[in-house]
Amino acid sequence: MVGVLLALLAAAVYGAGDFVGGLAARRISVLFIVGVGQVAGLAALLLLALLRPAPAVHRADVLWGAASGISTAIGITLLYQALATGRMSVAAPVTALSALSLPVLFAYAGGDWPGWMPTAGIALAAVAVALISREEDRAGVAAGSARRALGLSIAAGLAIGVFYVTMGRTDPASGLWPLVAARGVSTALFALAALATLPRWRRAAVPGGILWQWAVLSGLFDSAANALYLLASREGNLAVVATLTSLYPASTVFLASLALGERLRPAQVAGLGLATAAVVMIVLGR
Question: What is the reported pTM?
Fold first, then answer.
């Protein structure tokens, strides 16, 4: 039950972070938003790791963390670009559905069977995410841009799915240090990318204070959600935890509706209802 609660909380925080990051990415380069967020998140994770006991940190845990950092860097960049290119209420759910496929297949292939009712709940959750993603493109978005956003969302989801799987392979005794390794690698990658594009940055206008705040906030949200997911993956079945975490589009869509006036279509409302039912089935089946 603890794993379920942690996964649901991770979903809420992930959704909030994606909303803030995607909103900022509509005004400035994705590289800036993600890069600043990575640095802020690394500092926060390092502090949390020092505060949380870690009896034994093995080399394998650090290597799994490093692999997660590479996939995270790819996934978050593609996701924010998709959020900036297309509609938030489409990009976020499609990414979630794509991300969900890898850990579920991995868990079932490894014989980690959660039971019939949770399995039905997982299937229902996948349908829910698909329904939530059924939204018309926003005004002014060309067909080519919509297709590009869809491709970016799918690719982002697969990269995030790798993060779900690799983090689930770490030893609980390692505490949060695998996440520190992951964020350290991803931060280094973004630093290299920033150096490679330094001439362009010198010609660009200095970002406003609000954009710095959004970038930092998105990074803190992402790091907090990563920590919650890691703890959840150590408490429960990987397929169940990944499924519940992948419901984060509900948070993104809600915030987009509240702040941007993006109206929910009947299919999305039905999807949110199915998502609720899926969570109930998974909880009751545990």
Answer: 0.82
